Give the backbone structure.
Amino acid sequence: MSNDEPKGPPRRDFLGIAVGGSAAVFAVAAAYPVARFIEPGTRPRPGPAVVGKLIEFPPGTVRSVMVDDRPALVVRAQDGSFRAFSAICTHLQCVVGYSPERNQIECPCHRGVYSMDGLNIGGPPPRPLEELQVTVNEGTIIVSAVG
Amino acid sequence: MNAEQPRKPGWLSDRLGWGGIAASLERHRAPRRGFVFYLGGITLFLLLLQVLSGVLLVLYYKPDAANAHASLERIVGEIPYGDLVRGVHAWSSEFFIAFLLAHLFTVVLRRSYRSPQELSWLSGLVALFIGVGLAFTGTILPWSQKAYAQARVGSEIAHNVPFLGNWLYRLLRGGTEVTSNTLSNAYGFHVAVLPATLTLIVGFHLFFLSRKPAAISEPADDDDDAEASKASSATEADTIPLYPDFLLRQAVVWVGVLVAVMTLAIFADRPLGAPADPRLSSTGAMPPWYFLPFHQIVRSSPRELLGIDGPKFIVGATCLLGLLVVVLPFLDRKGSKLVAWAGWLVLFVLILLATSALS
Ligand code: FES
């Protein structure tokens, strides 16, 4: 790349570099906005979302609901207390479901298993399910991200 | 239509300059025997079938979460020959991937990737990559329970790709969640971006092939002495002209493939499955057969490998292996026999993994 050696037809070299260089610059200049255009921004954390009425959740119910566009599980224990978990498996994001026979939360995709506390107790999931916050407000159940 | 129809035969060929094209095609020679030489052509034919049936499906398909499944149900249930068109599209896509893989595999076994065929190899790999992209986006479009699950897992696997992961993930999902945006993105890629790119790449692939006349006319010669003498003894008798002989035989094979695809499209049921309900757990999320080996690895790997998250490790390793495959012609300039053996070994392992995934 040194310029002090006179070799070849320098003018053609220069032209080649100039044309190639400008083409590269144009390509990058076009690619960047395109890449940004097709990549949407990050979304805010889910919720709060109304997921139902208190009477729809008798003690001992587990229900699949949507919090914004994310699936979640609302668990009402026998003592009447509420807990909610994101229903997105921490392995590869399949939707988990409640298995009444085994009283646990299961992911069918790669046989992941979670306890009713959302703890990952079997299969590939690396982390517990994300816990969501449940508030009961005048008979409506509201679920939102914690914190 | 023309009043002064050809006394001079070939009004059209005159205008196309067909004589010149035919002459240049005749100069190329193709092997007389060996089914492997038909694999690439079959793949091309299947691509054509998919484009034709795909264009028809576009007429009725509605790419949004609320209507996609219903529109497919309408295609299959109400539109005359709708189930046939969908069947041809779906089955030819399976065949397409199968023949693409077979083509790739025989190229490895015969070590036909080596110099000066590097560009054919690279363009072929890009075609494979796009083909898998088409298959993936295609499984999302019915917006069934299964489609939804695969969109989730597929995008999350892409999330684990080194460096590009985050961008890919959001691109595939059209956001951070799998929503109707995911479906419309998949649609855009499936019907516009990917087919257009693939057409271009296939064009290059054929062009590179035509640049090297001997490319498909030489049986796998070798640098070993014994094989070399055998190769040099390959005479005219072992080859046939590309045109018309080879292309005619290719056409006959295509008819066979068409019959197979049609038979499956007519007689083998491909249920659409229930429409996607994001609240339901992802049952029946078995991936298509060509992802089974990967599925099995993902399913049975420990949570952590060498201190790295299981999926991250597996996807990273797969990318590294993929890179190795890409640079194969540059690593193995002479076409070492070792590569062919490695090829057989890989095939064996893949089949083993796929069968254990099914059990
Ligand atoms: S996605 Fe749940 S176990 Fe793999």
